[in-house]
Amino acid sequence: MNAKSFFTLVKRETWEHRSLVWVPLITAALIVIAAIVSTNVSGSIRLDMELDGESSAFFGLLASDQATQAKLFSIWMGSIGLPVLFVTIIVLFFYLLDALYAERKDRSILFWKSMPVSDSATVLAKLFTSMVAIPLWVWAVSLVMGLLTFVVIAFKVSGTPIAPLGQFHFGAWFVLQLTLLQNLLLASLWYAPIAGWLLLVSVWAKRAPFLWAVLPPSLLMIFEEIIFNTAHVAQLVGYRLTHYFDAASVGFAVESDAGSQSIIDSIANTYDRMSAASLLAEPHLYSGLAAAAIFVLLAIRLRRWRDDA
Amino acid sequence: MTDAVIVAKDLRKRYGKQTVALDGSSFTVGRGRIVGLMGPNGAGKTTALKAILGLTPFEGHLDVLGRDPRRERDSLMQDVCFIADVAVLPKWLRVNDAIDYVAGVHPRFDRARADEVLARTEIRRRSKVSELSKGMITQLHLALIMAIDAKLLVLDEPTLGLDLLYRRAFYETLLNDYFDHERTILVTTHQVEEVENLLTDVLFINQGRIVLDSAIDALPSRYAQLIANGDSCEAARRLRPIYEREVFGRTAFVFEGRDASELAALGEIRTPSVADLFVAKMAGSAP
After folding, report:
1. Which residues of A are less than 8 Å from B53 in CB distance?
2. Most buried among A34, A272, A295, A306, using CB within 10 Å?
3. What dotted CATH number matches B4-207?
4. Following DSSP, what letter does each residue of A112-125 receive, concatenated?
């Protein structure tokens, strides 16, 4: 298996699951369109910053020093790509469930297996697609979308009280893109056991892979609660699902009665700490990767020897 | 045989506790042969092919192109091609992408050759498999396979569900443009009459056992069909035919290992067709 073959396998995934490519692109396009049409007829700005009644303080902040402006710039450039990421996560979930299931259902597995492509290469290409290729695609799409949106917004805010929003901070932008890229790849590592589990269910389930992926852990939680009155499984799953956001400090924990200055400070500080690199020092990252490796090895083995096509 | 492509010894495989798919099958396939593996439904044909292709675990000794398909499947598949049956190209695949895919993963794929074979068909390059007829899907699959320089081609019911024209064209293309006496083809089919003229060897399998393994050339010296005259039926039965049936009021017997001189007095002698022999052998080996 050389690089060309592996690249072909990844391309193959995007032919079968075109939504992996199109959903991020369409979502990004919708955001750009939303930015374009978010001007009412009279041409005034309706940028909804969710800072009701605090707009004067907000404007004041905007007019303040370059460092704060750069932080604000980073906040909106950093968060504008989040919808693209969230819809892609949903698409990836169903992609992984389908990745080794559809080929058995339509018997095309016999065609794929007639090619000199090992089961390891096949399964790893699917894992790579979900953990590296599509995250990179989402990153690139978000980057371009961010720049386009910026141009639109900059054009609209010129000559208004929030004109500083239209100022491009290259240094902050560059650091932000690197941080987003790093965080995306760290998220892949953190969520690898879930990807591995979905692939394993996908190769194993005779039908209804979605139910097989979701029901057993759910039932385990319920039985544990009933029989032992404990919630270790639920905690384990919950921790795996949410801890990434703690590590990346993306939980914008803002006190509701705080003034806008402190809101922006707290968000801006959050941005400063947004790197999820601290995960690399956590043992749970590595235990998760070990679990992912076991799931993936099992998936490869099952695909190699399963004989029901 | 030094030039053997497949050597199988005592292959055994069961599904669950009840179903025995392979029950000690042994056979050899030589290089440059076109071998028909035939048997009734559930005889173990597909299981034997799956074993050869490393798609299923089994017991026994199996050597395909010098490799054990259980342990060396990945390298084996560089030299082996197979068409399982018409429905296995996925519906979403575009003709162009199918060619790109095989070109991307197969080191022995010749894209120009695939283009050339496809150009002779009505298949449009932008079409998806779901937009092609069954016959066209087979043509596409065949174009992909013919552009691969493989040593062994395995075909499992390749023309199932196709009309006569496509079936004929399929085997003609295979024979005229693919087979070169170096390559080996192993084919299973129910349509015995259609392949019998292109085979060099036949393997009959029933209930997981090989019941006939012969070159086509060797059949006339081993098997004879006798259309007995009315009175000679009893005499014919004493020579222990492996099969007898009534044809338009006359009785046809199939003999194994009887000299023509023994039979000549009893009636008209012919060489049984592969289809006749198939029926005779299946009836003869039934429990």
Report:
1. 113-114
2. A295
3. 3.40.50.300
4. HTTSS--HHHHHHH
DSSP secondary structure letter of residue B44: S
Ramachandran class of B109: left when φ > 0, alpha when ψ lies in -120 to 50, beta otherwise: beta
Whether residue B112 lies within 8 A of chain A, CB to CB, comes out as no
Indicate which of B13, B22, B55 best probes the interface with A, i.e. most A CBs within 10 Å of its own CB: B55
pTM across the whole model: 0.88
Provide the 3-class DSSP secondary structure of residue A101.
coil
B56 to A307: CB separation less than 8 angstroms, yes or no: yes
A113 has a chain B CB within 8 A of its CB: yes
**What is the distance in angstroms between the Cα of B249 and the nearest Cα belonging to chain A?**
46
Please state the domain count of chain A: 1
Q: Do B104 and A16 touch (CB under 8 A)?
A: no
Q: Cβ of A113 and B50 within 8 Å? A: no
Domain that holds residue A115: 3-41+48-305
Complex-level ipTM: 0.90
The DSSP string of B164-190 is: HHHHHHHHHHIIIII--SSSEEEEE-S
Question: A8, B104: Cβ pair inside 8 Å?
Answer: yes
Classify strands B184-188 and B152-156 as parallel, antiparallel or unpaired.
Answer: parallel
Q: Which of B278, B253, B235, B264 is nearest to B45 (CA)?
A: B278
Within an 8 Å CB–CB cutoff, is residue A50 touching chain B?
no
What is the pLDDT tens value at each position of chain A, 309 positions in all? 688 899 999 999 999 999 999 999 999 999 999 888 875 433 444 444 444 445 555 555 666 677 777 777 887 788 888 899 999 999 999 999 999 999 999 889 999 999 999 999 999 999 999 999 999 999 999 999 999 999 988 888 777 767 777 788 888 889 889 989 999 999 999 999 999 999 999 999 998 999 999 998 889 889 988 998 888 888 888 888 888 887 776 545 444 455 555 666 666 666 666 778 888 888 999 999 999 999 999 999 999 988 765
